[in-house]
Design brief:
The chain is an alpha+beta fold. Helix content is 54%, strand content 18%. The longest helix has 37 residues. The chain is elongated and about 90 Å long.
Length: 378
């Protein structure tokens, strides 16, 4: 069998034009599939930034909430009711809203403001400059150092500006795991200050963050919150809800699906046509092998080996090209939303296997039908 596979390899690489065309087709298809799905993964990571950065195990929210941007305020009694549930170690309020900052230069910039519980500061970011205690100072805010920081003119500790006509002073600079999706800088302050700075409705609690006493207590907490008329979701469940919202209730999911299908069709058409042409040009060689005693399974192994080798080589080249371009893009565009995940790699690999299977099927059918006497008669 190794001898047959060696012959198959030489037949494949000796025709450099056809081999290059096969590689280019699969490489381009893999590049598009991974790039498009990685963009979706990056957007979802940024869309769930508030959830990821806070790190709460259970989130209590209004049932109509489907993403962090559209938080619906809840009355104060919800916080008290959640705190009284058996299995709750502690529960704190969180405020999330949008404000308008007027900078020293006179320009205006929309900002996202997160209000942390005054007592515990639960969900606070990791500071790289300043002290967390300074958040209790008058008009104090902590700014997140991410790709959106230059929009605030790169503030330092002590920089001041106005938010909704109220003075704000930067007392700390923080780093968070994920940046926001909509290109707005993020500021942290206390819950009481956030509700004073941002005009709000009658209720002010956006979310209630819950720390359960144990993992087993989460189910009991969910049941109690459901009886109150609200939802209690774990961090993973909230992220899944956000992903489902953008996937099925916006145009983003359908656009990603269409682009992925187009990439698959492009790769399949190019590689399938090229591989069929390659098989036709080598029919005489396959016929000669069949005439000297090559078995059907050996000829099938040759075709499968050629298709599989080309598919794997194209898969690796496509991944490498995609990773390189994403890295270069992030050097020039820090807020570029694209992340390669194991899920993206799995989807691309599955589609490459399908491309290789269909291409090899076309070749196998043609080779098995050939009769040796036809080759020698020609």
């Amino acid at each position: 069998m190794w001898g047959i596979l060696k012959i198959a390899y030489k037949l494949l690489v000796n025709d450099k034009g056809k081999f290059s065309a096969l590689l280019v087709g699969i490489t381009f298809a893999v590049f598009l599939m991974v790039e498009v799905t990685s963009m979706f993964s990056g957007v979802m990571m940024k869309a769930s930034a508030t959830v990821t950065n806070t790190g709460a195990k259970v989130w209590v929210m209004d049932r109509a909430v489907n993403n962090p941007v559209t938080s619906i305020p809840m009355p104060d009694y919800v916080l008290d009711a959640v705190r009284s549930v058996s299995g709750v170690k502690y529960a704190v309020p969180l405020y999330s809203g949008a404000g308008l900052a007027r900078l020293r230069s006179g320009s205006y910039q929309a900002v996202t403001i997160v209000g942390l519980d005054d007592t515990s500061l639960y969900g606070r970011p990791r500071l790289i400059q300043g002290r967390i205690e300074d958040i209790y100072a008058e008009n104090a805010f902590i700014v997140v150092a991410d790709a959106e920081l230059p929009k605030l003119d790169n503030p330092k500790i002590g920089t001041d500006f106005e938010i909704n006509d109220i003075r704000a002073v930067i007392v700390g600079i923080a780093k968070v795991p994920a940046g926001g999706l909509f290109g707005t800088p993020t500021l942290y302050t206390t819950f009481s200050r956030a509700t004073q700075v941002i005009p709000s409705m009658r209720f002010t609690i956006s979310y209630v963050l819950v720390e359960p006493t144990s993992t087993a207590a989460i189910a009991r907490i969910k049941e109690a919150v459901t009886r109150l008329g609200y939802d209690a979701l774990t961090e993973a469940e909230f992220i899944d809800r956000i992903t489902s919202f953008y996937k099925y209730k916006t145009g983003l999911g359908m656009n990603i699906l269409i682009m992925t299908v187009i990439s698959f069709v492009v790769g399949l058409s190019i590689s399938g046509q090229t591989f069929y042409s390659f098989t036709l040009e080598n029919l005489d060689k396959f016929g000669a092998l069949k005439a000297i005693g090559a078995k059907r399974k050996e000829l099938m192994a040759m075709i499968l080996f050629q298709a599989g080798l080309t598919a794997l080589a194209g898969y690796g080249l496509g991944l490498g090209l995609c990773a390189l371009l994403i890295a270069l893009a992030k050097l020039r565009l820090p807020d570029y939303a694209s992340v390669i995940t194991f899920g993206n790699l799995g989807i691309a690999f599955g589609m490459v296997v399908v491309i290789a299977a269909i291409s090899s099927y076309v070749g196998v059918r043609k080779v098995l039908k050939i009769e040796p006497f036809e080759i020698f008669r020609a």
